[in-house]
Amino acid sequence: MAGMDRWTWPAWVGVVGGLAAFAALLVPLVALQSRRYGRLSGWRLLGAAALAVYGVALLAYTLLPLPAGDLAAWCARYGVGGPQLRPLQFVADIRRDTAGLGLAATLRSAAVLQVVFNVLLFVPWGVLARRYLGWGVLASTLSAAAASLLIETTQATGIFGLIGCAYRLGDVDDLLTNTLGGLIGALLAPVVLGWMPRSGELAATRGLPRPVTAVRRWLGMVVDVVLVSLVGYALVVAHRLLLVATGRPIPADRDLVELLVGTVLPVAVLLWLPPLVGSGASLGQRAMWLEPRWPGPGGTLRRGSLGRRAARGALGAGLWGLLQVLASLPVPGLDGDGVVVVAAVAAVAQPALVVASVLAVPWSRGRRGLSYALTGAELVDARAMPSAGGPAAGRAAEVAPGR
């Protein structure tokens, strides 16, 4: 059982850790895919999940577990000697370890299984590199060799000196067998992943307009919220690192500076500013190729004035951002009784706004949602409209809800 654990626990780490990494990156992946391909591809998202699981599993199999505790004592007891630099040494090892064994026993021996495993470990690399990333056979194979070399170097140097000794054997035979696995995977890729849409083929139809659907509208909202949250968190972390670097204490509770850096700044730049620029769409809507248009002369849809765009933004993501700022109060320096009441009201109003905005999408004309309906705007696919105000190519086609 212990032997099985040695082979299987990194796979479980790969599945759990890889899916967690994929979930954390899902919204950025959706936005990137929408902009790159003009639509979402479920198969390509599945490929991204497979890539995440494989990447984490590869790290778990090759670099984990790491030494812990007293590293000097660990190195004195378990440290590995110099790297094995003799190519094809595994052949002699197999001959030595399987001397006198039958064919079946030889194939089940640890020496043989180790070589086979090292080959199989990099077959998915070649498959994903060639078919998912679109690289050629040579590039896929060379990338497998480069990754294997980095792994072996990391093992042989104790993570480049951090551990103090080699905690795994750096083996040139591992480099050779891993590279062979990458080559085999690259050759098998058209058969194994022949169903995977190619990135270039999807990008070729990027400019084609598509129906405005509730899913696209909702995804735009999610992108806006996640973007503001991630940027705000990153700015707070950067601010705290700066405090540590300059020898200043980190505040026990959120202060006014962190409110400005982590909430007000990202809300202002990412939610309040975009409606004033260009089409007037939020960044999330732009990621989904959605834009607001207002009725113009002759039944056309035109880009709105600055006032109209500002009003629409203020009643949508901008309002959510304002409530986010108010709900983050009180902080030292802004902690009066009135501030506490405002923060409490905002904390209740913000989720209510979210629910109303989400529910309004499928029940509004053209899936335009609350802020569009309140300002008289229509929601259209950005590719179906001229880049500047002017006659539309058919208003009914542009605002028709997707089915």
TrEMBL record:
Pfam families: VanZ (PF04892). Residues 52-191 form the VanZ-like domain. Keywords: Membrane, Transmembrane, Transmembrane helix. The chain crosses the membrane at residues 12-31, 43-64, 105-125, 132-151, 179-197, 218-239, 259-283, 310-327, 339-361. The keyword Transmembrane helix applies. InterPro entries: Teicoplanin_resist-assoc, VanZ-like. It comes from the Bacteria. This is VanZ-like domain-containing protein. It comes from Cellulomonas pakistanensis.
